[in-house]
Design goal:
The chain is α/β, with parallel strands linked by helices and 469 residues long. It has helices at 41-55, 59-75, 77-88, 92-110, 146-159, 174-184, 201-207, 220-231, 255-267, 287-300, 319-334, 366-369, 385-392, 408-415, 450-455; strands spanning 18-23, 28-34, 117-119, 126-133, 136-140, 163-167, 192-194, 213-217, 236-240, 245-249, 277-283, 338-341, 356-359, 376-382, 400-404, 422-425, 444-445, 458-465. This is Aldehyde dehydrogenase.
Length: 469
């Protein structure tokens, strides 16, 4: 089934609309991407449906194609990583890691296949549960991990026998278009199609009657709109809607030993991680020590353009998000908080915000109750462990959380009390390809990752037969 010759991507017709792509390290446009219009989706989805009839028929060929796709992504790693850093802003080393995870996810799902399950219910009937693919899948991806999150959606969908229409954020379309071109060299035509454009392209894709599953990562408000759009055609939805993860430090924690891990759990990718630590609850007697340790790291981390080898922390990805981070920080400071580090935009071009550690933040401040999605961390003291757990569970989010302490059994018992999809002990936001990933409350609907991600792209098909004579 895989082709051996590179397949050129479909290019827009001369004079077709385009939109600028901005380098967040400079704040200036450096390239353009096709601004595909909603009325173009009928043809795209129609081709995806026709490709589905062949793609779904041969599981062995799909597995071979996905392994070849992983190798193709690895071979194109340098170009993909540099393109990703240029439009997203993250340090180049992190972009290389994202490309590697993209390939690893393809390889992982190439090795998974659904299992036929016999039903033994005591009746004289031979029954089996088999699995069938759904049809064209819409994958709508945000700007913080464009390639990794795209693969988290299309790899299980393709492995299950579906075809995919992939739409990246208009802030980060270029690396995804390049990825689509790379994959086109090893996948059959129209099995994976990348479409780029500004709204209402995403809304039209989510509501398209030919789409049978919509998988989306983004904000809660947009996720609700996606769910409403998909409801008209009764398409399945999988929604990962972000988080406001709390980390709870216990009174036996070794502050200096965990400080680096804790800092990067909050500030990696400039805090633009759905599972980042976004609130930190600390015993009152350790509060000053924790603030000092994190503030020292915030003040000394190297912030700069992602293509600079010395950079450890890049810019915020886009102007609207920078404005949001700035507004939330100003509001907290106006309400009585103090910045132990940072607290302001950095001088010069680009969307840089100084790594910020906030103390004295009112517990009802939006930077605590909402999702800042930037390099800002409020550190809040607590008097009793029950108070800390109640506060950690006290928002509408429930993606992840963590507990940090020396007594692992005690920390594990506290982690059990967190109302979230994943809880960690002494680390945060570490996932394997084989584990499920899901949130509760406003953090999402459905499950991604591991076999759960595969079965989320399949439907059961039951076959009844009379018993053998």
């Amino acid at each position: 089934m895989p082709t051996t010759e590179p397949v050129p991507e479909r290019v827009p017709a001369p004079g077709a609309a385009r939109f600028p792509v901005v380098d967040p390290a400079t704040g200036e446009a450096f390239d353009e991407a096709p601004d595909q219009q909603p009325d173009e989706l009928d043809a795209v989805v129609g081709r995806a449906r026709r490709a589905w009839s062949v793609w779904r028929a041969d599981p062995a060929a799909r597995s071979t194609a996905l392994r070849a796709a992983a190798e193709a992504v690895e071979a194109a790693g340098e170009g993909l990583a540099r393109s990703l850093t240029r439009e997203q802003g993250k340090p180049l080393a992190e972009s290389y890691a994202e490309v590697a995870r993209t390939a690893a996810r393809l390889r992982y799902f190439a090795g998974l296949a659904p299992r036929t399950r016999p039903i033994d219910d005591g009746r004289p009937v031979r029954s089996e549960v088999r699995w069938r693919s759904l049809g064209p899948v819409a994958a709508i991806v945000p700007w913080n991990f464009p390639l990794q999150l795209a693969a988290a959606k299309f790899a299980p969908a393709l492995a299950a026998g579906n075809t995919v229409v992939l739409k990246p954020s208009p802030f980060t379309p270029l690396a995804t278009r390049m990825l689509g071109s790379v994959l086109a060299s090893v996948l059959p035509e129209d099995v994976l199609t990348v479409v780029t454009g500004r709204e209402p392209l995403g809304a039209r894709l989510a509501s398209h009657p030919g789409i049978r599953h919509v998988t989306f990562t983004g904000s809660v408000s947009t996720g609700r709109m996606v769910a409403r759009a998909a409801a008209d055609s009764l398409a399945r939805v999988t929604l990962e809607l972000g988080g406001n993860d709390a980390a709870v430090l216990l009174d036996d924690v070794d502050v200096e030993r965990i400080a680096d891990r804790l800092f990067w759990a909050a500030f990696r990718n400039c805090g633009q991680v759905c599972m980042a630590v976004k609130r930190l609850y600390v015993p009152a007697r350790l509060h000053a020590d924790v603030v000092e340790a994190l503030a020292q790291r915030a003040k000394t981390v190297t912030v700069g353009p992602g293509l600079d080898p010395a950079t450890e922390l890049g810019p915020v990805n886009n102007a609207p998000q920078l404005a949001r981070v700035e507004q939330l920080t100003r509001r907290a400071l106006a309400d009585g908080a103090r910045a132990a580090a940072g607290g302001h935009r950095q001088d010069g071009p680009g969307y840089f915000f100084a790594p910020t550690v906030l103390v004295g933040v009112p517990p009802d401040s939006p930077v605590v109750t909402g999702e800042q999605f930037g390099p800002v961390l409020p550190v809040l003291p607590y008097r009793s462990l029950d108070e800390a757990v109640e506060a950690a569970n006290g928002t509408g989010f429930g993606l992840g959380g963590s507990v940090w302490g020396t007594d692992l059994d005690r920390a594990g018992a506290v982690a059990e009390r967190l109302d979230c999809g994943t809880a960690w002990v002494n680390h945060h936001a570490e996932l394997s390809l084989a584990q499920p990933f899901a949130g509760v409350k406003d953090s999402g609907v459905g499950v991604a990752g591991g076999p759960w991600g595969l079965y989320g792209n399949l439907r059961p098909f039951v076959v009844h037969r009379p018993p053998e004579a």
